[in-house]
Amino acid sequence: MMTCHSFICSNNNNHYYHYHQNFYSVAFGRRATSMAATTPTPVVFRSELKPVEQDLRTALNFPSSPRQRDLVFIVNPQGANGRTGKEWKKLLPFLRSRLGNDYNICESFTSGPRHAIDVTREAIREGADAVIAVGGDGTIYEVVNGFFWDGKPVASDNKEHLKPTALGVIPLGTGSDFARTFGWKNDPYAAVDRLAKGMRSRVDVGVITGNCGQQNYFINVADIHLSAKAGFYASKYKKFGNLCYVIGALQAFMSHYNQDFRIKVNEGEWEFCPQVTALCVGNAKFFGGGMKIAPNADPRSGSLSVVILQHFKWYDFIFNLHKIYNGTHLKVKNVSSRSVHSIEVEDISGRGGVYIQSDGEHLGFLPRKICVLPGAIEMIC
Ligand SMILES: Nc1ncnc2c1ncn2[C@@H]1O[C@H](COP(=O)(O)OP(=O)(O)OP(=O)(O)O)[C@@H](O)[C@H]1O
């Protein structure tokens, strides 16, 4: 069976290792060839010579230096309408010269949605120093979800690795909203410099629990109702860049009804929350390609910032759009904000049709509860 677990590693001697389970594939030979064009010889594609399971053991038992750990770059070649893959190719020589002396550089191109989750888990179990999401918020979201399994953090199989695997980000997406909270632009060279400096900081992660107990993690913003529906439509217009989010919001309004919810904050009493347009839970500040929806959110605060828009009509959205972009909308009538550790949400309208997204990814279930996991992941900042 073709499994999704794979990454290719190289050290400063330009020796490449494919890490993947259960198959060796012509496709990876092709990918590796394109990499070889950017690097001097010798290049050894070990998996073309041996069964991969053997190759995996060999690579793990004989690293180029016992002190060198892996940096695993998970690249979404389709991110930003294909720009991510092109930028990555240009970035690779710089990245190798900047980081190749200290780390084994490993790369994995995602083959489709959710692939990054599996590769991240595999990399953490194999003791990677860091897993770096190369792409947009959807790729970061999948990598973050790979840090967890069955409700618990994934850990290295090698108990000698006391330093946990860190999350890294090379923002190269359409919106790249998570990066904005840190003031980072879609500048991959600046991102490589950050990785080289290697400053780590604990960041919070949000966890959404569904009615059947299913869990989903987010690091940026989870949101319910209109904005989530807008995100769903926006994903069809990515070729228009950041404008896709405004187009998505206008399309979402066409079939939108504000609905009555009830919410419970920090395990308190249920509160009636009438005519909700959108309920957004920010671990970080931005969504929708630069809308500062949760200006008070801080991923290092140990809490989440809940922003609720009520009674909005489409023209209120248009009229206040500039305020949503610059984060001054909290002063607008029918907008409220509060800091929480947990929130439970129920649609009591009986109408249904409520969308939810987690870091821009559409979820097929309504949340029972959304909580913060303070300092759950170490991130390279
Ligand atoms: N090989 C692939 N082919 C198609 N889609 C992919 C592939 N790999 C990953 N994906 C999906 O692409 C989606 C979008 O990727 P990503 O977030 O990196 O870019 P973006 O949408 O342009 O940026 P942003 O989310 O910041 O606006 C992800 O949700 C992911 O599931």
Automatic annotation (TrEMBL):
Gene3D superfamilies: 2.60.200.40, Probable inorganic polyphosphate/atp-NAD kinase, domain 1 (3.40.50.10330). PROSITE patterns: DAGK. GO terms for molecular function: kinase activity. Pfam families: DAGK_cat (PF00781), YegS_C (PF19279). It comes from the Eukaryota. Residues 66-212 form the DAGKc domain. InterPro entries: ATP-NAD_kinase_N (IPR017438), Diacylglycerol/lipid_kinase (IPR005218), Diacylglycerol_kinase_cat_dom (IPR001206), Lipid_Phosphate_FormReg (IPR050187), NAD/diacylglycerol_kinase_sf (IPR016064), YegS/DAGK_C (IPR045540). Keywords: ATP-binding, Kinase, Nucleotide-binding, Transferase. This is Sphingoid long-chain bases kinase 2, mitochondrial. It comes from Stylosanthes scabra. The gene is LCKB2_1.
